[in-house]
Amino acid sequence: SNSTFTMIKPDATNNGHTGAILDQIIKGGFKIKAMKWIQLSIEQAGKFYEVHKERPFYGELVEFMSSGPIVAAILEKENAVADFRTLIGATDPAKAEEGTIRKKFATSLGQNAVHGSDSDENAKIEGDFFFSGLERF
Ligand code: GTP
Ligand code: MG
């Protein structure tokens, strides 16, 4: 489909990379359909990442994602999910391609600057988690 969901994570907002990351997303051809600046509670972050709750890093992930402000957004582009994951690069910034958002702005594997949905189905679920019909177009 043609939309995906992203978050700029607390490491990147706290390190002053929000503007540069949004600039790279927009120059990469993505249109912003909805956006908000928000800090998640532990409970909200835990619910968002429920799919990972059996993974050993779940507690650390939830704590990190609720530790500071994030930018949540719905993005539109042809082939959005796959193209956005190309733009952000590998989960581990040490393995990410040169020029990708994670290569340029991530702190570590756990604190990797941005989230990108991994399927059309999850893009819809994740966008609906953050935005009501009134907040998007
Ligand atoms: P997202 O776009 O954030 O979903 O990343 P991803 O799809 O590239 O990775 P995945 O969904 O497998 O993992 C979700 C997030 O958990 C990652 O982005 C990392 O922030 C974190 N994570 C994944 N693996 C590890 C790990 O081994 N250790 C730690 N501390 N965090 C991890
Ligand atoms: Mg993922």
TrEMBL record:
Where on the tree of life does the source sit, at the highest rank? Bacteria
InterPro entries the record matches: NDK-like_dom, NDK-like_dom_sf, Nucleoside_diP_kinase
List the active-site residues. Answer: 115
* SMART domains registered for this protein in UniProt: NDK (SM00562)
Q: Cofactor(s) for this protein?
A: Mg(2+)
Any one Pfam family match given in the protein's UniProt record, by short name: NDK
Start and end residues of each Nucleoside diphosphate kinase-like domain: 1-135
Keyword Metal-binding: yes or no? Answer: yes
Keyword Protein transport on entry: no
UniProt EC number: 2.7.4.6
The entry's ATP-binding residues are: 9, 57, 85, 91, 102, 112
NCBIfam families given for it? PRK00668.1, PRK14545.1
Q: How does it assemble?
A: Homotetramer.
What this protein is called in its record is Nucleoside diphosphate kinase
